[in-house]
Amino acid sequence: MSHFIDTELIETDVTSIADQKLINRDLSPTKISERSWGTYAIAALWIGMSVNIPTYMLASGLIAGGMNWWQALMTIGLGNLIVLIPMVLNAHAGTKYGIPFPVLARASFGTKGSNIPALLRAIVACGWFGIQTWIGGQAINSLIIIILPEWAVFSWGPGIGFMLFWAMNVYFIVKGIESIKWLESYGAPFLLLVGLGLLTWAYVNAGGFGPILSQPSKFTTTGEFWKFFIPSLTGMVGFWATLSLNIPDFTRYAKSQKSQMIGQALGLPPAMILFSFIGIAVTSATVIIFGEAIWDPVALLSRFESSVVVAISLFSLIIATLTTNIAANVVSPANDFANLSPKHINFVKGGLITAVVGIMMMPWKLLSDYSAYIFGWLIGYSSFLGPIAGILICDYFIIRKRKLNAKDLYDPKGDYTYNKGFNLKAVYALVAGVFIALIGLIIPEVSFLYDYAWFVGFAVAFILYWILMEKHNK
């Protein structure tokens, strides 16, 4: 284990490569002098990304679906402990070689084939961009209603709020990530304060935590519980399945393997569990106070009587959602789109593509109810991302024993060219993993395959890729 942690950091010079088609400033490996993020920085990054509205809605969605507070918290905690494993493993190459996710994918999929996992991951990020933008847009719409009450009867209000918040995101994309950096340190604390405020409100108005936490589970039998728990657990893993792939985009700046490993372990599960508990407690309280589970915090805030409190809270939500959206849902897909054509697509162009596709994915439908959010969106895309994670981890740790020719990752004629830039073995393993995971949607008798989509896809792709590559190497 110590050898795994203390692996030497490697600096790669790619300036001597004659053909620069696979290189631009955003995709180039970081220099060791640029790897300055310690344990605290990595942990803070995860805390900032975990404290967001989708995390709150994830937890409250489980309550709305029938779980009691401890069942929901256990599901979220277990899911985050599970996804931490591929998170730490995929982060290793980023820290060691200073390379981002789409470049790491070239080792297993090929210099051109890497666009397949990069685009699959980018499309999911576009969906998340749309979801966060819709949430921020509804906060703007609610804020306008406080200032102009007659706005409430305007049917186009939610759509206009969405486009206003979308325009704010685009502004910062064009200005560059540095233009919002000073806000990032305030975004998560803002949202945490709003969450704690809601928790205090729930405690006071529901008569303490006793009534809140004594809300019973709606499941009358163990079988009913497991039927809901299994796909919910897959949804929890799916929640961070995107970042478990492109975590090298961030850990390429880590000081050491120890920093990235401990930083992620300290930042991800505790932050998710804490903010999820707020969502669970507040949603449980709404059942007592309003007679129904209100899983959307923006909708809940709109029921408050004090316009000043609501206005301040909504403004905080807008700022926090903006910073989270740029950090979590623009940086990575921008790199993924840049991987398509590094010469022609930079961060700004990749970010603008993300913004446009985010609208096309109609996030208002993804957030129509908790079942569409957890069982449709989260599990659905995990069937594509699980197999990619299986292939990346198998290739780096089993096939290559953590040794890459980093320079050739940027060379169109190097070791990772395979068959005209594509490693078909990785493509076959990916298709097989996705097919087996999704077949449960078509054949009811094997619906459990879809319920376990991320796990099934990961295992099938991992094993098949291992077999195909071992056979090739003999």
Helix/strand layout:
Elements: H1 2-5, H2 39-50, H3 53-64, H4 69-97, H5 101-109, H6 115-147, H7 157-175, H8 181-205, H9 209-213, H10 222-239, H11 241-246, H12 248-251, H13 257-290, H14 297-301, H15 307-329, H16 331-338, H17 347-360, H18 363-366, H19 370-399, H20 424-442, H21 448-451, H22 453-473
Structure description:
- The protein contains 22 helices and no strands.
- With 474 residues, it is an all-alpha fold.
- It has a single domain, classed as Hydantoin permease (Orthogonal Bundle).
- Helix 6 (115-147) packs across helix 17 (347-360).
- The chain is globular, with a radius of gyration of 22 Å.
- The mean pLDDT is 87.
From the structure above, extract its key features.
mainly alpha
Tell me what portion of residues adopts beta-strand conformation: under 5%
**Structurally, how many domains make up the residues?**
1
Major beta sheet, specifics? none
CATH architecture: Orthogonal Bundle
Q: What count of helical segments does DSSP give? A: 22
Which radius of gyration do the C-alpha atoms yield?
Answer: 22 Å
Task: Report the CATH superfamily.
Answer: Hydantoin permease
- The sequence of SSEs as H and E is HHHHHHHHHHHHHHHHHHHHHH
Residue-averaged pLDDT, rounded? 87
Question: Shape from CA axes?
Answer: globular
Secondary-structure-based class equals: mainly alpha
Distance between the termini: 29 Å
Q: Summed up, what is this model?
A:
The protein is mainly α and about 475 residues long.
